Amino acid sequence: MKKILSGLAFATAITAATLAHAADVKPTVILVHGAFADSSSWNGVVKILEKDGYPVIAAANPLRGVTSDAQSVASIVKNIKTPVVLVGHSYGGPVISEAAYGNSNVKSLVFVAAFAPEAGETAAELSGRFPGGTLASALAAPVDLADGGKDLYIQQDKFHEQFAADVSEADARLMAAGQRPVTVAALNEAATTPAWKTVPSWFVYGDKDKNIPPQALAFMAERAHSKQTVVVKGGSHVVMVSNPKAVAELIEKAAK
Fold first, then answer.
1. pLDDT at residue 7, as a whole number
2. Residues 127, 94: Cα–Cα separation, whole Å
3. Are 169 and 77 in contact (CB under 8 A)?
4. Which of 63, 94, 178, 201 is most solvent-facing, going by the fewest CB within 10 Å?
C-alpha cells in the first residue's frame, strides 16, 4: 500500500512539475514585415521581446501574393512546438490572417498598422475606401517582371515623408535603399478565410499613417473586435521602427 501511495505521489509530483514547466514556456513570436520593408524593420521590437524572454522569428515575407506568402509563413508556424503569436505589419496583416487559419497553435494575432481584410477584400481596396492615404502619388513607375507581373517601390526621395516621417532622415534613407518591392497582384489579391474572426486580435497604429488611412485602421480594428487598440500619437506607418516599446508591449499582452 505504501509503495502504491509513494508511486502516486511521485506521479503527481511529475505532473505538477510538467504543468509548471508548460506554464513557464513563452509563446514564440513570429514577426511578418509588409511591403516596402524587410525583416530588419522589427529590430527594435526583437531586442525588447528577446530581453523579456520571448523566442522570436522575424520571417522573410516574399511579397508576391497573399496566398503564397501566407503558405510561406504557415510552414514556419507548423514547425513551432510552442504556442505562436503572429504579428503582421501593413500587407503582412492579410498574410498572418491567412497563415493562422487552421493552425491551432496560433493563440493570437497582432496587427501593426496592418490590413485585416474580410473575405473578398483586398489591401488596395481597403486603403482607398477611406480618405487620407497618399501612397499612390509616392510610388515609382512599376517595374516589369519576367512573368508578366509588376513590382512596386516607393520613390526614394519621397520615402521619408510617405512611409517613415517619424524616423530620422538618415535611417529613412537606409530603409528607402533597402526597401522590398511588392507586386501589384499581391495588393489586389482578395483575402479568403480571415483568422481574425476566430483568433483573438490586437491592433496598434499611428494617427499620422499615410500608407493606410487611420480611419481604415480604426474600422478594421473595431470590426475584428480588437482586444486592445493602441493609437500612437504622431506615429507613421512604421510604428514598430519609431515606437518599438509600444509595439512590443502590446505583443506581450497578446502573448499572455
1. 52
2. 13
3. no
4. 178
The alpha carbon of residue 255 and the mean position of all alpha carbons in its chain are separated, in whole angstroms, by 14
pLDDT at 25: 87
Residue 104 grid cell? 491551432
Identify the segments of the chain with pLDDT beneath 70: 1-23
DSSP summary character for residue 154 = B
Determine the Cα–Cα distance for residues 98 and 117; give it in Å rounded to an integer.
10
What span, in angstroms and rounded, lies between the C-alpha atoms of 112 and 108? 13
**The pLDDT of residue 24:** 72
Cell numbers for 12, please give them. Answer: 503527481
Does residue 167 sit in helix, strand or coil? coil
Q: The domain 26-255 is classified under which CATH number: 3.40.1190.10, 3.10.310.70, 3.40.50.1820, 3.40.50.300?
A: 3.40.50.1820
Q: What is the pLDDT at residue 5?
A: 45
Range 73-102 burial, b when 16+ CB lie within 10 A, else e? bbebbeebeeebbbbbbbbbbbbbbbbbbe
Q: Are strands 84-89 and 106-112 parallel, antiparallel or unpaired?
A: parallel
- Tell me if the pTM is above 0.85: yes
* Cβ(87)–Cβ(59) below 8 Å: no
3-state secondary structure (DSSP) of residue 238: coil
Cβ atoms of residues 34 and 90 within 8 Å: yes
Beginning with the edge strand found earlier in the chain, give each strand of the sheet holding 150-152 in spatial order: 143-144, 150-152, 182-183
At 126, the amino acid letter reads L
Burial of 103 from C-beta contacts in 10 A (0-12 / 13-18 / 19+): middle
Q: Are strands 56-59 and 84-89 parallel, antiparallel or unpaired?
A: unpaired
